[in-house]
Amino acid sequence: MTLNKSIREQVRHRSNYACEYCGITETDTGGLLTIDHFRPKSKGGTDNIDNLIYCCNRCNSYKHNYYPEDENSPKIWNPREESFSQHFFLLDNGSLKSLTPVGKTTIQLLRLNRPSLISYRLQQAAKKEEQELLKRYQSLVNLYHQANQELGAIIKNQQDLLEQQQQILRFLLEEFED
Ligand SMILES: [Zn+2]
Q: Where does the chain show beta strands of DSSP type E?
């Protein structure tokens, strides 16, 4: 039985429209992603929403119908149950380092260090850096405007003082001339 539309939409929305394994978004791929049964139906999995994962075509085809057959089979990361940071660490060069055996198996099975994903992560990091620079630039511009306003107020004060001094001088001169 295929999944109904409302369930699909819930899974999509819950994932924030991104592959829950590799993080690539609908916007990045230019289309809808697929829905993966974490425990495949052929291996006893159900259509329960907790067993459904929003997933890009690549990750889905690499994962295929993998599921640990028994206690000794290597397990893979279930993004619905465990956080990313529990099993992976993102290196500056854009590749993922596994922190656990589960992380290692997942990177291997889903090819999470495929070259296109590495360049995607590097691009994302560069974008983030750019945004931070822009934010810093914006706050500098704000500070500059503020300083300019303060300077304007100081100049105005000085002009007032000068005017007062001139008035006093004029007054004294008038007194002197009399
Ligand atoms: Zn993916």
A: 34-37, 52-55, 88-90, 96-98
Q: Is residue 159 part of a domain?
A: no
Q: How far is the CA of 24 from the centre of ligand 1 (A)?
A: 6
Tell me the C-alpha distance between 128 and 120, whole Å: 12
Rounded to whole angstroms, how far apart are CA atoms 65 and 113?
Answer: 20
The amino acid that residue 119 corresponds to is S
- Looking at every residue in the chain, the average pLDDT score rounds to 95
Q: Kindly give the parts of the chain with pLDDT less than 70.
A: 1
DSSP character at residue 25 = B
Residue 122 belongs to some domain of the structure? no
Output the CA 80–ligand 1 centroid distance in Å.
Answer: 14
What is the CA(11)–ligand 1 centre distance, in A? 15
Its pTM surpasses 0.85: no
